[in-house]
Here is the input.
Amino acid sequence: MAAGGMVSSAKDNRVIVVGAGPVGLVLTLKLIQSGLPVTLLETLTEAEFPKQMHRAGSNHPVTLEMFAELGLYERLEARGLIAPTFQYWDRQHGKIIAEFDHAVIKDATPYPFVLQCERLKICEEALAMVAEHELCDLRLGSPLVSFEQGADGVDARVGTPDGGQETVRGRYLVSAEGARSVVRKSLGIEFEGFTYPDRTINISVSYDFSKHGYSHRNYISDPGEWMNLFHWKGPPDVWRVHFHTDPGADEASLLDRQNCQDMMQRFMPMDVPYDIVGTRLFTIHQRVAKSFRKGRAILAGDAAHVNSPIGGMGMNSGVHDAMNLGDKLIRIFRGEGTEDLLDLYERQRRTIAIEHTQAQTISNKKLLTEADPAVRQKNHDELRRTAEDPKRAREFMLRASMITSLQQAAAIG
Ligand SMILES: Cc1cc2nc3c(=O)[nH]c(=O)nc-3n(C[C@H](O)[C@H](O)[C@H](O)COP(=O)(O)OP(=O)(O)OC[C@H]3O[C@@H](n4cnc5c(N)ncnc54)[C@H](O)[C@@H]3O)c2cc1C
Here is the structure.
């Protein structure tokens, strides 16, 4: 491949986005709506796409503002649940420690709530939007296999739905492939951080916990078996419980139906068995790529950073990467800036990944799992005082809703 001779025609003057998850789709929408052509590659076929698990979905206010800018929010609101509050519970005593209300930040955002809308719903709606846009060359069933880059562009080898391969050319290539990014690995970029020894089991049940005082989003601390409890819109509605698991336990025994039923009954005993509609086991990582870019290949979303889901920040921060990067690519394509903007993207978003998303999610987990009774009590008192003091509650909510992280990113030059 002749370095520097790759982008040979106007047709190749495009961005190749790898992965039609929330991050790849948001980036694609941002670029095509600004007049930049995109080739969007996705491993899953059209038939496989709607069969993905639902996964994440607590969408914070600033993310909702971004969705609104792209025309995506109005498609999601009807498919989600508006959650103005969230609660911390003490499982040992079965009591609320503190409740936080987004109303305290209503002057800072037109969306003072979280929208509980799962990843798959976001992807389905965004995919429908990119599919009908003339500037998006959408290729489902088309995994990125490898790539080479030169001074002017990138050649991507892509699998085709019939089992063959072809080459796609572009000016830049963005990996929004998720945590197992082929691009990050082939660039030899280290994924620094650690993996928690205890996995998280998700158990979905059709039972309405709101009648016991739970809000749509609940963080439940316990030194033995901490939990999160979230409500998701159906039909049929489900409540998903994320439980801590014993690091030594094997997968089959954790996912065993009776074990899952026992976990639910330990949390809230019932006369009848819970109607368990789904179970899933996750390994949780806290990792950030050592660099977000090498030449014309750029990382965004889970390809660049992964974290514990406590606090619902992974997808949100990936969407923030996509909007930040999209803005910079648009300026480069329009001749309004140089590739220094891509270094700025890395400085801004990598700093936020480390100082905000990693720091916050690690401390969120510590708060739920703290075993020392004195420290637990101190933490709970602190949370209570924060919720009761309007000034502190507002600062807390600006951080929890990720507004602070965007302000911090904007201040990095
Ligand atoms: C249990 C759980 C709960 C969570 N809850 C939340 C939450 O409430 N809020 C939140 O913000 N985050 C949450 N997260 C994290 C969130 O799911 C991820 O951060 C988010 O999905 C990352 O989006 P992404 O687009 O970067 O990658 P992904 O969602 O992983 O999407 C990557 C896409 O790329 C495709 N792909 C992969 N490799 C290739 C290839 N070589 N070629 C072409 N296509 C490829 C994949 O098929 C996929 O469609 C949660 C995660 C878990 C596990």
Q: What stands out?
A: The first strand starts at residue 15 and ends at 18. The CA atoms of residues 206 and 236 lie 8 Å apart.
